[in-house]
């Protein structure tokens, strides 16, 4: 079974994907990490984020496992990822790896922005996770504070607005719910409630 989970920054899609994968015993790929790692590799080599050729080379060089999440999860890297993610050739390069992950015999859970629309349009279950920008900014601030990063709520809310706009308006694979996706608004739901709501979208066992 392939489960595709999409949604904007800090909507809760990653947490939900992890919980569903653990519950179902399926492998999970957080596709945002691929874009974050591409941006990180570019910046580590003193490259520019809008240099398409260098960005594709960085994307090609990624190992799909062993991401150094501590270096990738920061606020600046989310923003940088969204810039390289708007380069069509980068998306094309990373698409193949995501598709082959999804096509494992046992299935997989993938979360991102274009999983249900572009990477796995054939997914068995698609969930589009949203939450109000204010709620998402609060969650991100808590997450950053938990990691000891500065967590200025107003700046994070602004980041979220800028990123929503860039991710939704780009020409290739914009952030959009697939027509057959289940909508899940987690504004008023905690992690457990969101998980229970998502379980209702799964096909009945047996
Ligand atoms: O957790 P958060 O949503 O902040 O970040 P993420 O999911 O790691 O994604 C970081 C950025 O990568 C996003 O703002 C998107 O621009 C890009 N991305 C994408 O374009 N397509 C994906 N499948 C996943 C991420």
List keywords for this structure.
binds cytidine-5'-diphosphate, Rossmann fold, 206 residues, 5 strands, globular, alpha/beta, 52% helix
**Unreliable runs, pLDDT <50, ≥5 residues?**
none
CATH architecture: 3-Layer(aba) Sandwich
**What Rg, in angstroms, do the CA atoms define?**
16 Å
Bound molecules: cytidine-5'-diphosphate
Q: Main beta sheet, described?
A: 5 strands, parallel
Element order: H for helix, E for strand = EHEHHHHHEHEHHEH
Count every helix, treating DSSP H or I runs of 4 or more residues as helices. Answer: 10
Beginning-to-end CA distance, first to last residue? 13 Å
Indicate how many domains the architecture comprises.
Answer: 1
**CATH topology, which one?**
Rossmann fold
Fraction in helix: 40-55%
Write the layout of secondary structure elements.
Layout: E1 2-6, H1 13-24, E2 28-30, H2 32-44, H3 52-60, H4 69-72, H5 75-84, H6 88-102, E3 108-112, H7 115-119, E4 125-130, H8 133-146, H9 153-169, E5 182-185, H10 191-199
Parallel strand pairs: 1-3, 1-4, 2-3, 4-5
Residues 9-10, 14, 31-32, 35-36, 78, 81-82, 85, 112-114, 163, 167 line the site of cytidine-5'-diphosphate.
Short description:
With 206 residues, the protein is an alpha/beta fold. It is built from ten helices and five strands, in the order E-H-E-H-H-H-H-H-E-H-E-H-H-E-H.
Describe this protein's structure:
It is built from 10 helices and 5 strands. By secondary structure, the protein is α/β, with parallel strands linked by helices. The chain has one domain: P-loop containing nucleotide triphosphate hydrolases (Rossmann fold). The longest helix has 17 residues. Bound molecules: cytidine-5'-diphosphate. Cytidine-5'-diphosphate binds next to helix 2, helix 5 and helix 9.
């Amino acid at each position: 079974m392939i489960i595709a989970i999409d949604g904007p920054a800090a909507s809760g899609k990653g947490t939900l994907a992890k919980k569903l994968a653990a519950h179902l015993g399926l492998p999970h790929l957080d596709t945002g990490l691929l874009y974050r790692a591409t941006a990180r590799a570019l910046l580590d080599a003193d490259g520019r984020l809008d240099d398409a050729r260098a960005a594709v080379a960085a994307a090609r060089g990624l190992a799909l496992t062993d991401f150094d999440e501590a270096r990738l999860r920061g606020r600046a890297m989310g923003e940088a990822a969204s810039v390289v993610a708007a380069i069509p050739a980068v998306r094309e390069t990373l698409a193949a790896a995501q598709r082959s992950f999804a096509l494992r015999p046992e299935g997989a859970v993938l979360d991102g922005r274009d999983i249900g629309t572009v990477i796995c349009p054939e997914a068995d279950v698609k969930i589009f996770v949203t939450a109000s920008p204010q709620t998402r900014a609060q969650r991100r601030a808590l997450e950053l504070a938990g990691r000891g990063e500065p967590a200025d709520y107003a700046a994070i809310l602004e980041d979220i607005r800028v990123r929503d706009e860039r991710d939704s308006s780009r020409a290739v694979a914009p952030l959009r719910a697939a027509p057959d996706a289940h909508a899940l608004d987690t504004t008023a739901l905690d992690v457990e409630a969101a998980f229970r709501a998502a379980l209702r979208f799964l096909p009945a066992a047996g």
